[in-house]
Fold these 4 entries.
Entry 1:
Amino acid sequence: MAQKLNRALGDQERGTPLPPEQLTVEAFLTDWLASSAKGRLAESTYHGYETIVKSHIVPTIGKVRLAKLTPAQLQRLYRDKLDAGLAPVTVVRIHKVLSSALSEAERHGRVSRNVAKLVQAPRIESSKALAFSVDQAKAFMEQVAGDRMYAAYMVALAAGLRRGELLALEWEDVDLVNSSLAVRHSLMKVAGGWRSSDPKTRGSRRVVKLPAFAVEALKAHRTAQLEERLASPVWEDPNLVFTTSIGTLVDGRNFLRQFKAHAKAAGMPATFTIHSLRHSAATLMLALGVQPKVVQEMLGHSRIAVTMDLYSHVLPHLQDEAAAKMGALLASAN
């Protein structure tokens, strides 16, 4: 049996299609990743799909004949993953990958139907985005004052950048004269470390205006970085805004650990993460009356519905303010 499978996989690698009755889920997904997904997905998304396939799908149903795959097998896969403690959001990603791949299999006549469409993915309970209050934001700013990554925290809090976008910033992306920065890159996790890549979506590419406190932090950071470069016998990349002490990319996990230590020292809940700075930027902007469309553009959300859903808890305040302004306007007209 093993020899037949190896021979069949070898035929597939040489471009000889497997007969539908021999094609396994593993063989199909391996080919789908290489020939279809890799060419059309953003690099970070592709690597996420690849991890899902190799870690969660192939070990469980990889040997199943693709044409024999049933909704019940997928439902059991999802149930087993949830029972094993996998987060519902990850199981939903498994479902998304399978549904996308099987849709292509259906279009190409390799299966008669997409069985993933007959299976309900786990429900993800919507939760309130964890964000700093004004007092917490001030306490955190005081805590990180003097840290060599102080400017990174200030930019994240002021502009709502994702961790990967923040750590991939280059000086040519920063305009200190016009108080703005351009998001053109994102740091992504790859085998053996981290590297800069293109942003995930077109909407993620954007120009963001910066408040004065973030601009001043960046100016001070640039001066300090130049001093570090002069004192260091080696400096890896002179273009990166935020680096290690020798000019290399900052490891995203190390940055998270540093944030966690500062947040704990400032009395923040243990559930806060780097992403809480992004949520805080959005929440504070909305609370100040900034239009949701502007917040969407600053955050790089693909659709305004994403922004509205994540920060719906702030919107009642905006509605109260709008009602008060409307009342005052019409009352003055009478």
Entry 2:
Amino acid sequence: MSKRTRKQKDLTRLAHAGREPARQHGFVNTPIYRGSTVLFPSVAALEANDQDFTYGRLGTPTVKALETAIAELEGGHRTLLTPSGLSAIATALLAFVAAGDEVLVADTVYRPTRRFCDSVLRRLGVTIIYYNPVIGGAIKDLITKKTRVVFAESPGSQTFEVQDMPAIAAAAHAAGARVILDNTWATPLYFKSFAHGADVSIQAATKYIVGHADAMLGAITTTEETTPAVAKTHEDLGLCPGPEDVYLGLRGLRSLGVRLERHQKSALELARWLAERPEVARVLHPALPSHPSHALWKRDFTGSSGLFSIVL
């Protein structure tokens, strides 16, 4: 967790989070660290194994810089990077479930998430139950003693239903279940996962954080309570993103605020224009007053990104 205060504006965090120039000989940006082997100054240090970096797979200063920055933006305890958004989703789910458990999954999740649940988790003996994304607090009726995780994605992938995350989280927590939220669409700039009840927040950083279609990256941000399970699973799976991809994530993060603002403006202009076209039956954009979930979006989100759908 960063030492910066929660009162700092997000745009200020984007400029400064994860940067420690004093450790980089005064250079503003953390350089690309490529490497596997890390030397210890003494046998005692090796046996203690408590220095910041011990092996390349377990992290580098480049990885730490981006993880620290994302954790600040999310308002979480720790962020762990993965090689892709899907690997972040898989890792977060595997951290909390075992054979015989149940997982409630929003029926409108990202298709690869659904494929992972239907193939890998079911093969491991986990029961998957898909729920209506507009269910809200009534999700309590689907939760059983075997429910370990509620996996949400808001807005829904392609269909853009906005979920009542505080109500869903309250029901899940009352039953002792964890809430994992895919926050890729809004990013932490436009939706604060933990302030709305999530225990784990995921981003396919390939999308808006990297922002230039030239790297693959995922991010899992956790609360203090959920960090140990996710960190252990992350290490057990041997996950480590490439150093160049992480650096490109740091590069993209610095301009995220400017880019998202433009995404929002351009998408809304296009959505409003499409809504007037005779060829278009419906525009699915939660920031439009015509969207069924607009009131929830207006209550919980501070902006919208560039992705929306149309029905012809």
Entry 3:
Amino acid sequence: MKRTVILFVNLILYIFLFGSGVQASSSYDKTGEMLDWKKVDKLFPKYSTFTVVDIETGKRFKVQRRAGSRHADVQPMTIKDTKIMKQIYGGKWSWRRRAIIVLGKNKKIAASMHGMPHGRGSLKNNFPGHFCIHFSGSKTHLTNNMDLSHKLMVLKAAGKLEQYLDKATPNDVIDAYIAGMKQQDPAIISRVSLQKMSWKPIFNKVENVNIRNMKLMSPEDQKNEINLKVPVEIEWYLKDSGRELFKGEIHLVRFTPLDSWKVDSQDFLKENTLLN
């Protein structure tokens, strides 16, 4: 009973702090259009150039599309562009996804990039390979699906992340929560967390995280519920202890059946020794 009261107090505080509408982000004030990949593919064919703007830092650099049929494989145009891109990633190449705006052909398009050189590169730019840019509806090379983290970053760049998360199913909320942890993105994970947390110290403990298994909750399981416990298997790679496997439940709550689901972060993070 005491635990339930605490959860509802946290939920009321969340609604008071963030409201029920779309939360504005202080990190950027411009968004891009969610243009489908099939249109982007024609708009920016092979060897076309465009500008990438990182929405968190505002830094921009130019790239050239070199390949890619399901998404854009691109390279920074010059040594200077490579330097700017590396600055965006804190001086270290990373697979982390970032929300970006693509500028070109009189368009401003919501997109997502990672920051890890791989494969082949052809330009004299000090960039050892190419990197990938995803748009709405684009897919990875090996699957017929859109990468979830890229999808969330595209939504973020389009200013539609909050709307998507506020209407998400319990399973989608958990997917987004773990993706936010994986990409170390406070905007994503905060929107689906019941409690307001200091995320940086938690992110600093995590190398990687993946959902290995999760029970699919049917509409009947959740229709009138305000508390759910979803069985999951989560694979962690922690900086201090290496690989760890969590088999347990993630607790979701909401104030009424019409409200959005939130993850009980304090309960989950304590169970996974990420919170003292």
Entry 4:
Amino acid sequence: MTGIPAAPTDPDDPLTSVNIADLVTIVRAAATRFVMGKAGGEARTHITVKGVADFVTEVDTNVQSFVKSRLADRYPDIQFLGEENGEQDVDFDGLYWVLDPIDGTTNLIHDYHHSAISLGLLRGGETLKAVLYQPWSEEMFTAEAGRGAFLNGKPIHVTDEADMSRSLINVGTSPYHHELAERNFDIMRRVFVDSADIRRTGSAALDLAYVACGRADGYFEGSIKLWDYAAGRLLVTEAGGTVSDWQGNDLGHRMETAVLAGTPAIADLLRERYLND
């Protein structure tokens, strides 16, 4: 966990009014209303194709509209960036929300019950607050910069694993970029041979959350978007782990990037042995 950041000196800074409990309430309400139950089941069958293996359902758009509206009502001075509807025009030097209304849309379409709503509050390239909710398991992950990471209100921490042979590694296939498949699967094969096992969940946000809470020791993927990692990276770093690109650089607010997360030792091993050869 990083040191507790200084409180904003400007009393008019909208960050001072942001309460993590408010964000939890908004995200949980969105999931209850639009993801779970009959309404969500019907909406997930209304699908639009955005690109190669890239889909959007009415659940995605309904969640985004709901969360955006509630945030605007509560925090009108904070900008909004969301995955859907082209809502990505913000001043990155200011304070802004980053929402993935459904991370794991393909899982949702197939009724796989492994998707999440991911909400981060950023300034510049730093995530300050994060809420990530898996509605089927009712797992609410939260973090605030300098104040730790939590799962359903209980502190979480990455494992202390440093041995690749004992490690469980989450992997992503970068499904929107089939041209990366040959290299990606070669890396995965080599990691699989050297580790305890690998997992592919279909949700980058949950991959990061699972590193944060110790279910996995590392995670890597060749290409994800800002809304995929904006909340999850704070969970990992506040839980004692590291998040970077494959070269070890900070992700900042890149709209698309490779990602590597894990315990400090396992992240170093993945970078040195597999990702930069």
